[in-house]
Amino acid sequence: MGFQTPLYRLADYLNWTTSGAIQLPDFQRGYKWEDERIRQLLVTVLQRHPMGVVMLLKTGNDQIRFKPRPIEGVELPAGTEAGSLLLDGQQRLTSLTQALTGDGVVSTKDSRGKLMDRRYYIDIRLALQGEDRLDEAVISVPGDGVVRTNFGKDVVLDLSDEDKERTAGYFPFRLLYDPLKAATWLMLLPDTSLIPEFMAEIVQPAATYNIPAIELDVKTSKSAVATVFEKVNTGGLTLNVFELLTATFAGDKDYYDQHGEDFRLNEDWLKTQEICASHPVLHAVENTDFLQAVTMLATLKRNQADTSERPPAVSAKREDVLKLQLSEYLEWVEPLRTGFVWAATFLADLHIFDQRSVPYAKQLVPMAALRVVLGDAIDLHGVRERIAQWYWCGVLGELYGSANETRFVRDLEQVPDWARGKDGAVVPRTIQDAAFVESRLHSLRTRGAAAYKGIHALVIADDAADWMYDKRFDKVQYVDMNVDIHHIFPYKWCLDHGIDDERRESIVNKTPLSAATNRKIGGVAPSKYMAAVERAAGISSDKLDSLISSHRCDPKAMRADDFDAFFVARREALVKLVEKAMGKTVQRDASEGEMQESADRFDAADIAVVPDEEGPYGDEQPSS
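Predicted structure:
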């Protein structure tokens, strides 16, 4: 990548934006500057203060074929070729182009975001009183040039035509860079004595106003464009790969020749979103996640088709996403949509029903890709069991928190053969890397941890039933009963009996229950609320004991209000659930002695109750 840093006159930029020599790449956001910011920009020009650099990308790069579009407010003949694409400076050059050319009407908004049209003027006499009066001299008026008060009834300033402009003594910014029209306008001023000084102090200095540029040459890659844009863009907007590919795909000549129109990636993504909308667990899937999955499948195909000693690597990295061809995207988009829908049904079978219960939304990326690679075979009993083991190892081993690209690729390369039981297949690294220790249960307290959500799902999937209604938590009942995670030994009871924060807030002391059951529990001892539940539900003690046991809780310890015995027994029961899901042994490291030393092992911040939007007690409402 090469670049230059030339200095161009504002007049040149205006010529280039209005002629189409400078256009926007299709990924740029819409124009959004408000009225006062535009006014201040015009003051900056008159004061000859710097306004920062703009960034231009020379066109003609075979590797980057961004679809161009005109600066907003500029109309160009069809097929107008851009010489440069504006990567940074869109808001400034759009404001200047609209205010300083044509009719000078700028489509903007006020400080409250209300859309409106404005024109900008220079109070001639005020501007000639010195630079310190220029800010005051630059005014903004409605697009029709008429300033009204009293709800539009009274006109206080009328600049609706040139005669009225001159009579009021306001020079229009639209003529500042049009010397012939400016001269004609000024010659008809009522007080022509102002003309020489206004020309010398305002018009002529503005004509030499310069703006520096960073010009990227034709060898610049898409990856470099993204990197430079993110580091230099003064609007503070992050440019992601989806927006870059939107522009690249829109410029695909082969697609246009075949279909007579450009391919719109953003419109195609709306189709994917419509599909995801029917599955709550997919609501967190982002367009960049989808593109990562496409890239893995495209690079996997390239890898498998290459017979050389060094085939291209399978990848999910950004630089490889940016190398995607439209033909590759179109090849994999429908299989991947099917793959993500399959992932949603798979999670439902694991009793993960909504977005906030998904341990790792990013793990859906390799999961959907695996469905594409394995096809219908993924639902064969043995294959599905291994896929479930891989999934739980990722969740309970907490392996998908960050820097996932390498793991995604390893999953796609290693899991299929292993899941099929193919001879010589290696155990996937995700399973090898996964580990869970008993003491982790003590620090799992809210849905902020993937393993917390995972154990919640494992308890539900282990045939747990609500204590009041004897209903399993399937997808329908989960919603209908307003199920959430609640304390077993109530929060208030634990406070009253000196139960340490670590064990009180641990997932060991929490379980999924309906809202009605949690209300019945209240804040009393288990021995008391169990009797209340029996009366309300009209069931025997043995029946309630059976329902409580379905949550891997010891009803005998609960009836005795023996928190210590309850905690040890349920911790072991949850460990066994984890072992079964991961297919691996959990290290027992939470002896009674270590439990009593919890204050030494955990900082206060680690064991404090974490507040969130659902209430003062973290993700779960305490039984108080």
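Summary: The longest strand covers residues 115-123.
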